[in-house]
Amino acid sequence: MNKFVGLRLCASVFALVCAASASAQMADNGTSGEEAAASGETEIVVTGRAGAGDRTKADTSYAITTMSEEFLRSRAPTSVTEALKSVPGFWVEASGGEGSGNIRARGIPVDGFGSVNLLENGLPVQHDPALGYLNVDQTFRIDETIDRVEVVRGGPSSIFTPNAPGGVINFITRRAGESIEGIAKYTFGPTANQHRVDGWIGAPIGDWKLGLGGFYRVEDGVRDPGFRGNKGGQFRVDLGRDFSGGKIDLSYRRLDDRTILYTGLPLTRDADGEIVGVPGIDVMHDTLASPATAQLALRNGTGGIVNFDNRDGTRVKLDQFSASAEYELAEGWLLQNKARYRESQTVRNGVYPAALTRATDYVSARRSTLLTAYPGATQVQLRYASDGRAFDLAGQNGNGLIVENSVRPVSIDERELLNDLRLSHSFEIGGMKHDFAVGGYYAYIKDSFRRYSATVLEDVSGNAQLLDLVALDASGRVVGSQTQNGVSRYGSEFANGTGTSDTFAVYASDEWQVTDQLRIDGGLRYEKVKTEGRSEGSRSVNLGDPSTLADNNVLTGSGVTKSFDRKFDQFGWTIGANWQFSPRAGVFARYTAAFRLPGVGNFITDPTARPVTQKVKLSEAGVKYSGRWLSLYATAFNTDYDSFAISNNVFNSATGGYEVRTEYADTRAYGVELEAIVRPVSWFDLALNGTAQKPEFRDLRFTQLVSGKPVDVDYSGNRLLRVPEVSFRVTPGVNLLDNRLRAQMDVEYYGKRFGDAANTQKLPAYTVLNASLRFAVTPEISLFAYGDNLTNKLGLTEGNPRSGELSSGQAGNQLFIGRPILGRSFRFAASYRF
């Protein structure tokens, strides 16, 4: 993309907006309230600002995407990340299931939720949304208690929210009204064998308003692991009261849920070079997870047992208490406070493919070692661990392949207390209005982290089976084994740490209405974090079982702990301007110096780590038009990200362990985001959101050893990991039968990407079709149908991170591992509102 394409496109869109605005004003001097609300002209937003007055989406000085409850219901997203596919500027990976998604905001190359924060009613769901194996989307679910979603991209998000340099996603819950109301919904998914019930009811109780809601569901999963993949639910109770000059809201949320984590699958290329699944496995609906690895008793370095239970998947038990209050101290003075306390216990179980190889090569590489270890042996054999059947090295399952997987149970116990206090004042000086706010934020986190891994050997099939490599004597009797019940190495990883952090921040902002059309917005934030704790070191032990080599190199705790006590602080700021030259149209520009401080998660496994404060410089300029026939928001952006840490976490097949190397780089992404809705007639509309960008490493140079000699490597100018240059979603929709019937289709396109910084592991472009249908049987009863990935398209969201993200060890291989999107699936639902 040409360096100035964003400016050129913005200029063109600006001219279009001016023309459309002038034409609309000549044709009509105003719109009805209903039409204005539909177009976003009067849609009040609360995210990304701290003033006492109201601000509409149409006159914000930053890029914001809003999603109503009807919008969410029209797609029924299966996860938090799935819901965010409609946000331009976000590259969303939801192929891992309901939790543990990845979001890249405006090219910031950080996994998980490391560049954005998730809010619930304006306060973080989790202070650090990427807290080492505990992504914030693991502890939050979308259900019918959600009223709407507001997503701020870049802009002032980092001024009012911690750990949010790329943006914030604010889930705003329902609040009961003056009369009894509610909704009940049942969803059946035949593809995943899903049964789900959602509900919410709100009612006045004297001067108070009570809301109750949540969901419960059971399902095997679109990728059936041979056991129930997802089971559990969420419950919420809200109590609120309005009084003269203010209001108070109290909330309790309980989450007890289990979700399976989908990881990579074996892939190959056909005669035309196209990526396809290997024979013996359906890459659209299969998974390597299986009953064979559902429950494993794994030996640790102290002679005890670690119970791995993949039926639990990611098991989260969370209790969250929230309270918020606001009071108008005097005319134009508003005092607000939001507080939250939560406790969560998470066990994250997963089967992670580490290395894919031909069985003949695997056996050949280990034959000599095994025969040497057991002098009485004359031959080796690969066989199934369950029944001793010989594995056909040439063509078992039609592929003759084996895969080494890491089975990894990780447990995280976390407690945190958050509080945000702010004072806002709206006043006039010299005929100019100011909406000023000052606030303070505090967060306390206590985190404990434990990790164990073992390497297992499996065949390549849907619901993979465990394998043993055994040594046989001349009579065919087993005299020893490389593996034990499918485990080729016990204790391939170890971590045990605990820590706390205290974060203090102060911020201030001012929205200065210079004229009726021109407003200047500014904000400042100073944040300081102190983190301390300790982590146990590791040592290798030989458990001494003579029948197997699997226990010869078991990592366990050394009994020696190292402590950490670190402090960090940083100052950030933003300034923007909005020119609303028409009630329906305007332009804005903004510059933000954002940051993300290190936290307890950076040290809990390595007290000697030397993380740096992540600094982001964001520039953006946009145009917006909100009219009867057309709503248009276009934003050009530039993101400079300093000191990005990229880790080469490579699986070593010879040892069954991991080798880690970290390099630092500066990155840049510039481009254009577009949101538009065209409504030419009452029965048809067309929505478009898309991003065109140039995401690249600005400076990634390092030296590595090749055949024992130092070699300089320069990846500067290469594409950032897994971020496409072009992505968009087009949604045509029709409303028929006096709006009782709504049908729409999503056409999603994602350009090619790369799985490593060397840009050698190419992830091809792909297009996905989704559709939904709503029919209102009565004003109270509605029926829904959803179809996802209708063409069963194979699209890869990532390669194999365990082969290296600096330079992939599987690039160019005929056989490799990648994580595809989920295959074709269908769901049907019925809802009743009262």
3D architecture notes:
With 834 residues, this protein is mainly β. It has one domain (5-358, 401-833): Maltoporin, Chain A. The chain has six helices and 44 strands. The strands form nine sheets. The protein has a 22-stranded antiparallel barrel. A five-stranded mixed sheet has the order 3-8-9-6-7. A four-stranded antiparallel sheet has the order 16-15-43-42, with no helix packed on it. β10 and β11 (194-205) form a beta hairpin. The protein is globular, with a radius of gyration of 28 Å.
Topology of helices and strands:
Blueprint: H1 5-27, H2 33-39, E1 44-45, E2 55-56, E3 63-68, H3 69-75, H4 80-83, E4 90-93, E5 102-105, E6 116-120, E7 123-124, E8 146-153, H5 157-160, E9 167-173, E10 181-189, E11 194-205, E12 208-219, E13 230-243, E14 246-259, E15 265-269, E16 275-277, E17 295-299, E18 305-309, E19 314-330, E20 333-358, H6 359-373, E21 379-384, E22 401-429, E23 432-459, E24 467-472, E25 478-481, E26 487-513, E27 518-541, E28 554-582, E29 585-596, E30 614-626, E31 630-652, E32 657-681, E33 684-699, E34 701-706, E35 709-714, E36 726-736, E37 741-750, E38 753-754, E39 762-763, E40 766-776, E41 781-788, E42 796-798, E43 815-820, E44 825-833
Jot down its keywords.
Maltoporin, Chain A; globular; 22-stranded antiparallel β-barrel; 44 strands; mainly beta; 5-stranded mixed β-sheet
Overall CATH class: Mainly Beta
Alpha-carbon distance between the termini? 51 Å
> What is the CATH-assigned architecture?
Beta Barrel
**What is the 3D form?**
globular
**Count of alpha/pi helices:** 6
